[in-house]
Structures are given as structure tokens and as C-alpha cells.
Amino acid sequence: MIAELTFEELASLMKSAAGLTVKPEDLAGRPDATFADFGLDSLGLLGIVGELENQLGRSLPNDAERSKTPRDFLDLVNTVPTTGA
Predict the structure, then answer these.
(1) Half-sphere exposure in the Cβ direction for 16 (13 Å, CA)
(2) Angstrom distances, CA of residue 67 to CA of 22, 42, 70
(3) CA–CA separation, 37 vs 53, rounded Å?
(4) Of 37, 80, 36, whose CA–CA distance to 60 is shortest?
(5) How many CB atoms are located within 10 Å of the residue 16 CB?
(6) Could you tell me which residues come within 8 angstroms of residue 60 by beta carbon, excluding any fewer than 6 positions away?
(7) pTM for this one?
(8) d(CA 73, CA 27)
(9) How many CB atoms lie within 10 A of CB 75?
(10) Helix ranges (DSSP H) in the chain
(11) In this structure, what DSSP letter does residue 60 have?
């Protein structure tokens, strides 16, 4: 189970769930750029949320699919308690 989602794992999710190749160092270097700047649309982000929920075995907050930047997404996902999964 993922203890804390990293930029590397987010880049991997972007590839597997949205078919978008982004280097982890690009996400880390521009964490406040919008997902749209990386070519990710809202449906792609929804796919990432679904994939991550499947991996974690629990739901993420409703706001996860409305995150605008990688930093917002990681901050939100990494504040969700891991108990009860």
C-alpha cells in the first residue's frame, strides 16, 4: 500500500490511467502548474482517482477529482488517513 503518493507515482498513474507520459521530475519541478499544462483533462484525472482508489482499497475525498495542480492533488491524497483500508 502507498504510504505517501509521490510525484513519481503520480506520473505512473498518469501513464496507466490516462495514457499520458509525463516525467516525474517535470511534475516535481512545476508542482503548481495546472494538470491541463501537462495535457491532463478532467476525465483523465477522474481515471487517476479511480485507479488510485482501486490500489488503496478505499475512496478518496470528492475534491480529489477537482484538483487543479499536482501539488493540490498530492496534498489532498496524502492527508487522507490510511486506517480502515
Answers:
(1) 13
(2) 17, 9, 8
(3) 24
(4) 80
(5) 13
(6) 49, 52, 53, 76, 77, 80
(7) 0.88
(8) 12
(9) 13
(10) 7-18, 24-29, 42-56, 70-77
(11) P
Give the C-alpha separation, 11 to 28, whole Å: 10
Would you say 58 and 85 are in contact if contact means Cβ atoms under 8 Å apart? yes
Q: How far apart, in whole angstroms, are the C-alpha atoms of residue 26 and residue 61?
A: 25
- What per-residue confidence (pLDDT) applies to 2? 58
Q: What amino acid occupies position 22?
A: V
Cell numbers standing for residue 56: 488503496
| CA atoms of 12 and 55, how far apart (whole Å) | 13
State the pLDDT at residue 81. 67
Within 20-63, where are the H helices?
Answer: 24-29, 42-56
For the stretch 11-64, pLDDT in tens is 999 999 999 999 999 999 999 999 999 999 999 999 999 999 998 888 998 889
